[in-house]
TrEMBL record:
This is PUB domain-containing protein. Residues 61-132 form the PUB domain. It holds the Pfam family PUB. SUPFAM superfamilies: PUG domain-like (SSF143503). Residues 192-215 are annotated as: Disordered. InterPro entries: PUB-like_dom_sf, PUB_domain. It comes from Obba rivulosa. Gene3D superfamilies: 1.20.58.2190.
Length: 235
């Protein structure tokens, strides 16, 4: 009895340990609070609502790509001062970042601030903490990948529509050709039937009861006197 109780206790302890290990594993995979969640949501709102929805698509995608380039330049070469700023009077920057909706706002969220240097205005990245820059860059990559997939699906759908239209056009043409072919066959059969009927009427034999006299009479013209005169000569 004691041995059974001992085995049961060991089994129960093993089961408790297994449940605890599973719970610890789940806890290790669970993050109760993401400190960057709010920041990501803010970046996403600017991307979706202010940049993508408020600009022409080509300009919006160009703005996202330019902002990502500005962010990656700083992340990859943080010591290069010239890569940590941009000049709003630059024609390309002016068109893509300054004049397009939402792009300058996003640059400010990344950490760029307006300042004057040598009587000229620049936007310069000034934060030592690059956490916002990392988050903003990742959101830009995500948005560009998402929009690229949309474009690819759009091209695929348009390709399918074009192929479907070509198939429908080919089917209509084939149906027209089949109709002409069937009509030609029907016309030929009707013509053959007419020719066969005409030939049959010409080749119809003389009724068997017809007399030699009746055949002899064909082709001869009779007068009234001939009809009233008996063949023997008596009237």
């Amino acid at each position: 009895m004691s041995s059974r109780a001992g085995r049961a206790a060991v089994a129960a302890a093993a089961e408790r340990r297994l449940r605890q290990e599973r719970a610890d594993s789940l806890l290790a995979c669970y993050t109760p609070f993401d400190e960057n969640h709010g920041k990501r949501q803010e970046f996403r709102r600017v991307i979706d609502r202010d940049i993508l929805e408020s600009n022409a698509r080509d300009l919006a995608l160009e703005a996202l790509a330019t902002l990502l380039t500005l962010a990656e330049n700083i992340l990859q070469s943080p010591g290069k001062e010239k890569l940590c700023k941009f000049r709003p009077s630059n024609p390309k920057i002016k068109r893509i970042i300054i004049e397009s909706k939402g792009a300058l706002q996003y640059a400010i969220l990344l950490g760029f601030r307006e300042e004057a240097m040598n009587y000229e205005t620049y936007y310069r990245f000034h934060k030592k903490d690059k956490s916002d820059l990392h988050v903003g860059a990742s959101m830009l990559r995500e948005a560009l990948q998402r929009e690229k997939k949309k474009d690819e699906r759009g091209l695929h759908d348009r390709g399918q529509e074009q192929r479907a239209a070509e198939v429908a056009k080919a089917n209509i043409r084939q149906a027209f050709l089949d109709d002409r072919k069937n009509k030609a066959i029907l016309d030929r059969k009707e013509k053959q039937c007419r020719l066969a009927g005409s030939a049959g009427s010409r080749d119809t034999p003389e009724p068997r009861g017809a007399s030699m006299e009746s055949r002899a009479c064909r082709g001869k013209i009779y007068t009234l006197h001939d009809l009233l005169t008996d063949p023997s000569g008596d009237v």
